[in-house]
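User: Run a structure prediction on this.
Assistant: Running it now.
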Amino acid sequence: MTGADGFIGSHLVERLLGEGAKVRALCVYNSNGSYGWLDELDQDRARSVDLRLGDIRDQRFVREVLEDIDIVFHLAALIAIPYSYQAPASFVETNVIGTLNVLDAARDIGGIRVVHTSTSEVYGTPGSVPIRESHPLRAQSPYAASKIAADQLCEAYARSFELDVRTLRPFNTFGPRQSARAIIPTILGQLIAGEKRVKLGCLTPRRDFTYVSDTVDGFVRIGLADLAPGTLVQLGTGRDVSIGELFGQCCRIVGVDAQVETQAIRVRPKASEVEILRSDPRQAHDMLGWRAEHTLVDGLKNTVAWLQPRVDPDQVSRYAR
């Protein structure tokens, strides 16, 4: 698995271990020798994982890591949309070239199934909702453009070389371990720290939020399903809420009365804002037998329980950047 040290990847590692799978986990190299969220695995579980530090952009290294692998869950990516405006080349190098390296290695070795991770951001503001897999793609950020390119490479390799690659396209996943810069940890972190004026950007965009264990279940199902090369399946609940509505729900769950302080720094460029993302989950149900088991409220409660002992009020500014 690539991106095993991250938010969704670490949860997927735990799920696969629970299913009795042998897991090789590729984590991004760093000078601290950290395996990200996998550092929190208990010792018995950690010993059962083949942990590797490296870089998805290194073609030779990726080829080496994929040896003797049956299924590659490819989650490694740069995902911070605001940073993509500042450093678009780094998103191309990681998200596009990194994906190309995985596809080339799988093709060269043979007999490997690739599960590629897409994002609902590739749709941009849709022409109609709910969004189906056939909806046209529209990049409204450099991040989205890099993911569209990666998705198209996967489709091209399926068509050109009959590579067994399938693409999973989650909508907005949330839950424990998510980056403090994501919208739900941004809101909850400030509320838990006792902030009465929560710093946010635009409140009108609407999103379809899926709890992380449901997204992980989708990864397992698409990895094991008998599907044609190039198959695309999206994951979402089929329900959306505005950021303003989400803020109100978070206040009720934490049990505080707070107000929003709009921060221009958190607002996308006008033509880049995606106004609504709401999935049509029928294909995930029909092809994978998948549906979201957690409501937004249940997922928020679980996330609050995880965050509460980890939020330092003296460092809450990191949730509002």
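The first strand starts at residue 23 and ends at 28.
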